[in-house]
Amino acid sequence: MRHRTLVYACAVSIVIAIAMAATSSVAGQSAPLEKPRAVAKTVTVAKAYAPPKTPDGQPDLQGFWTNSTYVPLERPQGVTKEYYTPEEAEVAIKRAADREAEQTEPGTTADVHYDFSQFGLDRSQSTFAKTLRTSLIYDPPDGKIPQMTQEGQKRVAERAALRKAAGGQYDDVKNMPIGSRCIMMGGAGPPLQNAGYNANYQIVQGAGYVMILTEMIHDARIIPIDGRPAPPSGVRQWTGVSRGRWEGNTLVVETTNFNGKNPFRNGSENMKVTERFTRVADDAIEYKFTVDDPSTWSKAWSAELPLVKTDGPIFEFACHESNHGIANILAGAREDDKKAAAQRKPSSN
Amino acid sequence: MRIKLAVPAVAVVLGAVLLLTSAQVLAHHAFAAEFDVNKPLTLKGSLLKWDMVNPHSWFHITVKEKDGKTTTWLVEGGSPNQLIRMGVTKNTVPIGTELVVEGYQAKDGTNKAVGRNFVLADGKRLFLGGSAGGVSDPAKVK
């Protein structure tokens, strides 16, 4: 049995810190910057949290959640332990938030961008999850993605060669990243990933199904939990095919049948993702995932990314309709073509 | 090389703001493929319309040229979703609001730009600090 202490901190409100005796993790919520910074208070909760139930008896995961966090997927260089102390975690968060708000130098490529903080898109201006973990990856214990197999390295090289053969990344719509094309972005997963901004989700449960709606590009993953098998291997989808089941209060979701066009961390279409959702507090879901892809990594690896409660609703994203950037990028590429052609012309002298 | 913003944004005067621009960390697409780093510009004009759309919002700005003619510029900004959560609406920045936009022009030379800084006539930065903190008169919002 594990003993949990919930530490509620934050600006007016809330930072949840779930500090467990052996496996500490802290979830949190930031508040609008104009409000006063909060003082942390510690609340001890029952060691066995009993989640509310849906009308049909499922543990209730429904609501609006975010997985925004400053904790990196892999352990930073020079950090050798799995958990920071609460004080060290605060320093790490502050350092990351300061870096996010750092200024770029005018006239540099990095400077050609709108200001994230001006649009409230840096993470410290929205609800984000705090954790004492030094990396989201907890297995292997070094907090790093395992070594890539030779087969995986070969595939990565082949993909790079195909991209090169297709021409410049911005020459053609099909060469552009799928996020730029509004097909899908990283947050949807599976596994769910911190999207960087608008990292918000809504979970809805009905009889026989769980649905996860991702704000960024508005992907809805509908997960049957009625025991039906996965479809044949020939059925391939961008987000794979997910099947769920309850193990006690934990929703276990296994996803296979990826189409290979959106490789997670350079994985293959044979990747299997196993996710575990456990509501551990009114305001927090423990979210863990394991990625198993022997053709890419020498062994399976696992990470934990807390989901903390946030305010709804999920706003419509409608990415395609106003994705004017694509047309502008293509216009820029054609302008580059003209300049290149002019340079190739022999001089009239 | 990066320069760190060391003063509260709402207290920054315009001149200083124009020297400092904030870093992007994650982006929907490569803005340097859309806009030209060699075409920095400063637009002074009034807001004609703000399209609060994704993946990026667009400000339509009427700019008065030296010869008295006006031109309309389209200036790209960030996703509006988090601003909406903070209580920002289309009415937060009233039509006609005078703006100074520092940014970079589109590579194809048309009247489009990315808005690196949006600054109000009184020198305050728009939105910075969350929940429309940079708007001159909060009573006008919503």
Question: Summarize this, please?
Answer:
Chain A is 15% helix and 23% strand.
Task: Please characterize this protein's 3D structure.
The complex is a heterodimer of chains A (349) and B (142). Chain A is of the alpha+beta class and 349 residues long. Chain A has helices at residues 86-100, 150-165, 324-344, and strands at residues 4-8, 16-20, 41-44, 63-66, 103-104, 137-139, 200-206, 209-214, 219-224, 241-247, 250-256, 272-281, 284-292, 301-304, 307-309. Chain A contains 3 helices and 15 strands. In chain A, a hairpin with an 8-residue loop joins strand 13 (284-292) and strand 14 (301-304). The N and C termini of chain A lie far apart (86 Å). A 5-stranded mixed β-barrel of chain B has the order 2-3-4-6-5. Chain B has a single domain (38-140), classed as Beta Barrel (OB fold (Dihydrolipoamide Acetyltransferase, E2P)), CATH 2.40.50. Chain B is mainly β and 142 residues long. The model of chain B is unreliable at 1-25 and 129-142 (pLDDT under 50). The relative contact order of chain B is 0.22. Chain B is built from 2 helices and 6 strands; from the N terminus they run αββββαββ. At the A-B interface, helix 1, strand 5 and helix 3 of A face strand 1, strand 2, helix 2 and strand 6 of B.
